[in-house]
Amino acid sequence: MPVGLLGRKVGMTQVYGDDGEIIPVTVIQAGPCSVLQLRTLGCDGYEGVQLGFEDKPRRLASRSERGHVAVLNGVRQRQRVAAGVELVAKAGCEPPCFVREFRTDGEEHGLGVGQAVDVGVFADASHVDVIGTSKGRGFAGVMKRHNFAGQRATHGVKRVHRHGGSIGMSADPARVIKGMKMPGRYGGARATSRKLRVVRVDLENNVIVVRGGVAGPNGGLLVLRHTK
What we know:
Elements: E1 5-16, E2 22-30, E3 33-39, H1 41-44, E4 48-55, H2 63-69, H3 75-82, E5 96-103, E6 116-117, E7 127-133, E8 139-140, H4 142-146, E9 184-185, E10 190-202, E11 207-211, E12 221-226
Antiparallel strand pairs: 1-2, 1-12, 2-11, 3-4, 3-6, 4-5, 7-10, 7-12, 8-9, 10-11
């Protein structure tokens, strides 16, 4: 099944392998996810499956978000029914707080709107890709952002110990080269950890354990997909 899964990072720990080796792992609460929409080539120009993870509190959900997943029986909707227009299938669930799509161009997935997808989609997978948002560190200097060594803390270096130093040449080419490593915003960006080995899959608790670390803090939202 080409469809991935949405989840939340629980945290890191270590487990013992079959040979007694200690394996550093990340525990991920993956699913269950509801199928919200099926994208079709004729209607949307591409084929895909839209999944939602975790219910959003009703007081925080807008009417448009509720109408995306359930029939609200509004005035316009009643008019369309009276005119004989076929309504779009709804999942019949609460508005989710995390929604993502997976492209399935030309691939069979066998899913329907409203169906639940659990961690069983990775039961036979050996490796997965995990996409998350890295921890935001704000505006950082070159030592923290790029692992610069900094300047010497000796005579002749005056209050510039953590500065980056020279950034360009003289009269030729008389400019700063594009891509120069400099201070700036660090973290808070989409990051993909590719080809992480699946250590365990707990179907009963919808938990998947992968080797290594993934981007984001504990409790951060993640996207899991089959690795290429």
